[in-house]
Fold Gamma-glutamyl phosphate reductase.
Amino acid sequence: MSTAFAEIVVPSVVEDSPETRMRAAKEASRETARLTSDGKVRALHAIADALTAGSADIIAANARDLARGAAEGIGDALLDRLRLDEKRIAALADAVREVAALPDPVGRVVGGHRMPNGVALEQVRVPFGVVGAIYEARPNVTVDIAALALRSGNAVVLRGGSAARESNTVLVRVMRDALASAGVSSEAIQTVDDFGRAGATAMMHGRGLIDVLVPRGSASLIETVVTESTVPVIETGAGVVHIVLDESAPLDWSRDIVVNAKVQRPSVCNAVETVLVLRAAAQRVVPEVAAALLAQGVTIHGDEEIRRLVPAAVATTDEDWATEHMSLDLSMRVVGDLDEALAHIRRYSTGHTESIISTDALAIDRFLAEVDSAVVMANASTRFTDGGEFGFGAEVGISTQKLHARGPMGLAELTSTKWLARGAGQTRA
Amino acid sequence: MSTAFAEIVVPSVVEDSPETRMRAAKEASRETARLTSDGKVRALHAIADALTAGSADIIAANARDLARGAAEGIGDALLDRLRLDEKRIAALADAVREVAALPDPVGRVVGGHRMPNGVALEQVRVPFGVVGAIYEARPNVTVDIAALALRSGNAVVLRGGSAARESNTVLVRVMRDALASAGVSSEAIQTVDDFGRAGATAMMHGRGLIDVLVPRGSASLIETVVTESTVPVIETGAGVVHIVLDESAPLDWSRDIVVNAKVQRPSVCNAVETVLVLRAAAQRVVPEVAAALLAQGVTIHGDEEIRRLVPAAVATTDEDWATEHMSLDLSMRVVGDLDEALAHIRRYSTGHTESIISTDALAIDRFLAEVDSAVVMANASTRFTDGGEFGFGAEVGISTQKLHARGPMGLAELTSTKWLARGAGQTRA
């Protein structure tokens, strides 16, 4: 508030903190919520262009992260996930343009009717407001999440992993400058990386400032966010995924689907971790499925019955059943019947994806009805649980909770709804 | 697992605890999830009949609660909310029959398509599993929530207020016996009332056992549950509700709607708490609106400008703006323009319902677009924010959060979805 004495009053300095940044995002979210779809597309194209134009800066910052990572002895696989080069930055910019091309979920009328007294009710999609993301390692998540949040009319507060902190700092600066150049408040993209642990803590307790928090990363990161947050969280990702080979399982489907689900990309959440084989099918299918897996370099962790059929298998431990290996390791177990398979899944599944290979209609129906997971399949690879494969065009993550969103999340899952009621003086009788 | 020696092994005694009850509910939820709609209707009718048949027991238990409440000096209003008599029990049984008559949300196909490779995708409504409810005072919530949870295929774990503990104990016993008589596991309805505070704590931390937790009661109860829970919560109810009288506000609509919104039922969350009047309308509308309110026994808390127009008004305090009075108290304030009204609402609204009285299309559009609440109205009483009024047939509560459900919640909001994928050997390329 300005007064006549404004110039001679020492202005109160607001200290920069996670809270002031979240507050700035909240304030900016009023603007992003009202952007037209065209306005959002322009902002995203500005970001995509700025990423390409800023490649040199981004790569220089990334090189510092890589050097620090190498000095700290993080593994080659992690270093590779951390690395940004011209080609990856171009792919990142293209991904932003793809998000810009998606239909805008905001403003869609999803329901409504006229009340008996004439009041017109309408339920419309609106942005959440401020989306928070806490994530690890890969710096491209910084850009992905910001683009998805903006496309759906939200402001975003980011907290990336410390391994990528120099890269993330530059990526955020480039995106903020691009927003400003497109006439949108740069405050719509915030990072709290520079506050370390305190930044994440402030987000998890940012009631009224963060409308929804999406953790992306390891099971322990997700567990921490879910347990500690007082703001609503969408739990994503952890996948201890099962395939059941039923008595009637065709051998070729069993082999092709298990190999595809394990080998095609072992480091992702929809890769299979455990194969349960009905005893009546074990002798018929296990040797050939195992041979195909071993030929692809898979280490099979088998129970005693599996090891009798597959001499190359190593012994399973109790821990194996609950482990998301993210590697070419696969647990296999023989079960007496479908009941035992379902009980195993109830105990160890993270509720992500399970698939049965079977030609028995009753077994398939029972499996689809009784397995309590986000995606339940028959005769298809678990690798299909994916926003792109489901036709959403982009993926915010895969929700393993039941509230709000379940399974692959698209742009609509980054929105809420509100009810509009238009009357002409109506009162309640 | 039974063995040949089962009979001579001393069975391990599982100690009764909140956890064992939640676990029993989880187990029973597999059965309730698979009940046909007809099966659920039969179970609910059995409950309704049992409530009527058990009236004498229920009233006797309730009398003990009332006597204890009176001895502890709880107020007449609370005692009245606690009271159950033949008529109220009959109304409760009727409410259960009404819930039974609602369409079953479970099994509804809400989306789906065929993937390019032929895999058939289908998104279907499924029960959450176990719904938890933590609530206060009125024992009828015990029956309402149990009926709504069961109708949507869920098991339920209840934690009622200590003031109603004897009534709740009998109500739960009657409902559990009725379930058993209808051939449904009585474990589908659980209470943890007898564990006191530990029961509520166990529910709030019941990850994997409670799928969603619904708090109903005071703002402080809701705040505790939201802050402490590690399971997903749907935040309901608290309503600091605003009405804005625009410059163009018709006098009769202003008077009728404000009086209706405050007086018709002051103790509920959709009753108005604050009226903001644009300065340009104040002299024209405030005296008559205030006179109508005063005639109904309302105490007006006014700022200085209101008090100049309404000598009978008492002075507002800063606290008033943030208070849900639940009584015939109303705060009134004069604001310079719509911006100032919107800023006031941003600061003090709980995101429940706000309404503008106006004939100015631009002002109405701006209000509907910019107010970030579950229900935003023009020219209608805020009392319409109600599951019954919205045509849902029953109301689980009114969500003031943005995740999963926003505004009045019906049966569908007690369900989640899952994806079913049916293939013929497809693998991912």
